[in-house]
Amino acid sequence: MTTNEGPLHPYWPRHLKLDNFVPNDIPSWYIVTALFSVCGVLILITWMLSGRTAVVPLGALRQLTLCWFAICAFIHLVIEGWFSFYNKAIPGDQSFLSQLWKEYSKGDSRYIICDNFIFCMETITASMWGPLSIWAVIAILRQQPIRYVLQLVISLGQIYGDILYFLMEYQDEFQHSEFVHPVYFWFYFVFMNALWLVIPGILLLDSVTQLTHAQSMLDSRVTKAKRK
Question: What are the backbone angles phi and psi of residue 67, rounded to the nearest 5°?
């Protein structure tokens, strides 16, 4: 809520009115450390299990891809799924995931006000890319033929959503964050979201390469069969 003494919240633009807003009681450093610790443990577990459960030995690139999709499944289903279900309650809620979103909203206040675009994007992400990421993990471990198709579809969807995410804020002149703030703007808003452009971009190219090679091999076999 805004008073004559100034806003009682840390979000931008400063004139935002937030009814029932309750400040976090967990320190920012603890929230960020806990998030990255969980992701680190998940990566370590996925890496270790991949050596035991994969039907064929996986190279370092495939293991890293496996870890990436495990992280995607966790973030899309748990963290973004939480926002999708509880977005209206987040400003006044003190559960850890709600406080995580209130912390992240310092870099993009569209989350704390439940912007329509953000709600739609996160709901699609949680309901589609989350389950497909789990399937991608299984497909890579079991060497299912569909694995590169899944990799392509998920990566393309992530890139598309991220481009829209940045462009919508660009159209709003970056008013939902303290512009050029080293943590809230550059780390929360730019860096953490740019990961979903860079890594999916690499995996998209990898998928195209693998699928093109497979199609070339199939075409070659068909051509040889016809010559016989």
Answer: -60, -40
Let me know: does 38 contact 132? Beta carbons within 8 Å: no
pTM of the predicted structure, to 2 decimals: 0.90
Give dist(CA 210, CA 216) in Å, integer: 10
Total length of the chain:
228
Type of residue numbered 18: L
Buried residues in 124-153 as b, exposed as e (16+ CB within 10 A):
ebbeebbebbbbbbebbbeeeeebbebbbb
Q: Which residues contact residue 194 at a Cβ distance below 8 angstroms, ignoring those fewer than 6 apart?
A: none
Those residues with Cβ within 8 angstroms of residue 76's Cβ, 6 or more apart along the chain or in another chain: 125, 126, 129, 130, 133
* Identity of the residue numbered 86: Y
Cβ distance 116 to 88 under 8 Å? no
- The closest of 181, 203, 184 to 192, measured between CA atoms, is 184
Task: Give the pLDDT of the chain (228 residues) as one tens digit per residue.
Answer: 344 455 688 998 888 888 889 999 999 999 999 999 999 999 999 999 888 888 788 888 999 999 999 999 999 999 999 999 999 999 999 999 999 999 999 999 999 999 999 999 999 999 999 999 999 999 999 999 999 999 999 999 999 999 999 999 999 989 999 988 999 999 999 999 999 999 999 999 999 999 999 888 877 877 777 676
The token duo for 195 is 């990961």
